[in-house]
Amino acid sequence: xxxxxxxxxxxGTGFYVPDTILTNVDLEKLVDTNDAWIVERTGIRERRIADxxxxxxxxxxxxxxxxxxxxxxxxxxxxxxxxxxxxSDRIVPSTACILQDRLGAHHAAAFDLSAACSGFxxxxxVAIQFIxxxxxxxxxxxxxxxxxxxIDWEDRxxxxxxxxxxxxxxxxxxEAGYGVLSFDLGSDGSGADAIQIPSSGSLHPxxxxxxxxxxxxxxxxxxxxxxxxxxxxxxxxxTSLKKINMDRTEIDWLVPHQANFRIIQSAAKRLHLPxxxxxxxxxxxxxxxxxxxxxxLAEAVEQHRFRKGDIIALSGFGAGLTWASCIMRWARxx
Length: 334
Ligand code: UT7
What we know:
Elements: E1 8-16, E2 21-23, H1 24-28, H2 35-42, E3 46-48, H3 56-71, E4 80-84, H4 95-103, E5 109-113, H5 119-132, E6 139-146, E7 164-173, E8 179-187, E9 195-196, H6 208-212, E10 219-220, H7 222-242, E11 253-256, H8 261-270, H9 282-285, H10 292-302, E12 311-318, E13 322-329
Parallel strand pairs: 4-5, 4-6, 11-12
Antiparallel strand pairs: 1-7, 2-3, 6-7, 8-13, 9-10, 12-13
Helix pairs in contact: 3-4, 7-8
The structure holds oxa(dethia)-CoA (UT7).
Oxa(dethia)-CoA binds next to α2 and α7.
């Protein structure tokens, strides 16, 4: 990828998480675990869980409405909607199409994007291409998940980690020199089995036998993913910075994927960033996959943490395996 100065950036953000809270103490009743272990090994204290009859699109819709409002953009101004998710309402049609109708985004094209926890940054990189080349003016990017519907509540290796939520950003033209300055996307498909839902598609169609073996739920090699994440999350930000001859000392904020507090700390260390410059909300929400970064971003905006001109690095990693980062100069007066 060729780095370039772009004039596409975030106009507004929004997020939504379900009201129901599942604490570590609640989990102690389900599996052989304890609050102290979870907090020490992951940093997570609680997570949000969507009701059984609530689909991912319901969370995404609320986040999208808030992002549009925050951006001052009407749904009918949208040219494109991209939903980054691994828990779409259905395999067909895309959830982006469901939202296009529900939002009343009459002029928008719509599609889902599959890059797991790196999905929001991947989708953002697609959005800015359309804006920079003049094809589209306003693009809504959503990262949303209802992972709780794919959790094995008897598997302590995974059930303690994940939560539900949705975050959204409206991208559009911003002042020259502001917005997304650079990004780095990557993948290593040799790690495809490290995080997977084995029976979720054409390889192993869902059958009673698959369900009995819990193959329709999340399977993860935690240690392999941990090592990959530690290696990748800081490195991808350094790659993004290098493309625009920027130094890590210029970063004002890191908005990382929230998978494990120890992974976030190691990325911050690699970037020589004090933790005060890192947006962390893992203690409240756990790992919401594609929703983590946009929720953290939107929550930080709501807390007025960013100033116009701040250099913000987004960095994620996840199933695929994939990784993605981008560097943006904050264009909003908050
Ligand atoms: O979005 C990307 C998705 N996934 C990730 O980013 C996950 C990355 N990986 C991780 O965050 C960590 O590997 C985990 C949090 C999943 C596990 O932490 P760990 O420090 O790697 O633990 P471990 O798997 O090495 O297990 C250490 C011990 C084991 O016991 P023994 O063999 O030492 O007696 C486990 O059986 O901790 C035990 N253990 C638990 N104990 C209490 C594993 N899970 C639990 C648990 N509660 N929930």
